[in-house]
Predict the structure.
Amino acid sequence: MSERISGSAEKFAEQYERIRAEIAKEMIGQQDVVEHLLMAVIAGGNVLLEGVPGLGKTHLVRVLGKVLNLPFSRIQFTPDLMPADITGTNILVRTEEGNTFRFQEGPLFSSIVLADEINRATPKTQAALLEAMQEHAVTVAGETRKLPEPYFVLATQNPVEQEGTYPLPEAQLDRFLFKVLVPFPTLEELGAIVDLTVKDGGAEAQQVIGAEELLAMRAAARSVPVASGVQEYALRLVLATHPENADAAEVTKKYLRFGASPRAAQALLLVSRVRALAKGRFNVAFEDIRFAAPACLRHRIALNFEAVSAGKDTETVVEEIIASVSEK
Amino acid sequence: MNNELKKCLRPVKRRIRRNRFLQGAAWGLAAGVGAALILRIIALFTPVADKWLWAVLPAAGFTLLFAAWNALRPVKDRPAAEAADGCGLKERAVTALEMTESETEICKLQREDACRTLQELDVRQIRPDSAKKQLLTALGCGILVMTLLLIPNPRDKEAEARQTLRKTLKEGTEEIARAAQEDEERLSPEKRTELRRLTEELKRELLDSRDETDALVALDRAEQRLEQMQERTAGDTAAGNDGAGSENADGSGNQNGEAADGTGAAATGKIGQSPADSGIRNGKLSTQKALTALKSAVNPASAKLKTQTTTAGSQAGEGQGEGLNGQGTPGAGSGSGNQAANGAGEGSTNLEEEAGGGKQNGTVRGNRDPKYKEAEYETIYDPERIEKTVRDEMTNQNRVGNEESLQAETGPGKGSLGGSVPWDEVFREYEETETRAAERENLTTKEREWVNEYYSLLTEQK
């Protein structure tokens, strides 16, 4: 096992670059989004993608499934979507022995699940995702069924259209390793996207690794050592988001209602480990923590009324918090 | 700790040591120049000798001390690793250091990676912390020190004078010791011991002297004791010599001279009680001469005064010798004749004594050194200083000629008898009294000038 990990660690950076390059064949721009998504997948976390429609979120997830050679399923969340629609249900089937109930797996039973416009579903359906996201299992009719490994939920939501939506509860948001903001493409990127649309026979992404290799990469990443100072920095960063903390930054005390959970610290260190290996290092650096922090923290903190009235958004506040925490 | 990692950290440690040396030197320079500035400020109120030395020495000393201390302190592994990481190693060194005990595959890989990057590291990237503040502080203090060094400071002159005095006293003490050694050969064991004790005490007192006054007081005291020793020797001789001693008590200048000569002769030739003490009776001891020389060196005003006094005394002696007895022998008194002259013209201060002695006896003036009788002066004005009891003193200010004697009161003035009368106050009062007395007297212009000059010289010296 140990040798497998070290072998995987040594070729980690190379594999990572190959996956990125393959995704880039079909995804124009969005390098930051791709990087975050890839890291979350390797770390084994779920990602919430937030962006206006038409930015290629669904396409990105589809390409990712293709490159990683993982089964992919897509659920379009709507207000009338029921939990059983996604988890699966026992259905009555007629057999030679007679009628019997058989479990019909829902779309959650796939390695990559794209929960499109997750905030459109009712809280009941959203809650059905909780167990799948956290435990990688679903319980139907009292029977718990394991989901395939590797398993990720990649959810999207539209930040603009809020009418008829059900904002995700904090408990569910906390289950997402990252919240990645998908920006609008630049002029050049937009031009390339337009060109790609009308051209025939464009380059297609190919499979780079399989599930086995992905799990090996994940194991390697989890074994990366972290220096005490670096780990402490990550923890201080999380604590700095708590307004009740005496050592919290001024911006935290002023604009935050509550801070990030311990899951944020776990997520920070986990993603930092992946990034370290991806950058060809066998140890976590401060810069890895700084890289992962915004995506790890932005959906785990809640702004208060003063922040809203002052026109502050979570992005600004998180940046200020990161700037306020020293490395030593 | 992993040896390979330790080896890789060595160049980093060397570099840190060098940086610490520079940093320490900068701190030391700032502290040293600061100390020099403080010393210079102190020197505005208290005399500090060797001002240039005390400006340079703290700066150089502190710089070297701080630099050496910083450079010699051992560099620990953790700061070395952190410094290396600061050069773009991205926490490789620190992590490797922390994971030295771990033998997992990934940790081994990490260590190898850390060692490789450490070997490739250009340690020149590890720069010392900015010493701008320290250097600016040093510069600012340095400018202030230079300014204070270059502007005239009366305390510096005082310090120089003190240093000169100390040097003079040291040389003088050595000279006195040499002279005492010479004298000892001519003295009886008893007197030898006394002389030795006297010179030892004098040496100690001179070396403890804070200023000229202290030194002069010590010298005066020593001189007095030496004179007393001589007197005792003379008394012993007189006791053994019938007749010669009785004449001695007469007090006239002429007789004194004869008696002194007679005593000397008796002591050497006839009495022969202690042949070893011949030196002490046959004129001045070398120690005495050395004392006088040192007094002159310590108090240039006194030396200058000596010349004037000698001249004035000789002249006065001539006149008086003729006026009083008609048989005076000006300048004839020598050796033990001093004692007789002293008995005749004793005053409470050197001026009075010199003047009185000179005028009355005349015989003294030719060879007797003028004395700045500070011990006596202190006896009147600041007795506690020389550990004597308070006494009132009236000065017999004798006049030239046969006219009626006048008394000038120079007893305790405005100052307290409890001691610690400021010199300035006493001096001023004394000067006024004596100047008034001089004006009242029918002194010649030359003599009055002499009195005035005496005080002006003392004022200059003060």
User: Anything to note?
Assistant: Residues 242-273, 303-372, 392-401, 403-416 of chain B have pLDDT under 50 and may be disordered.
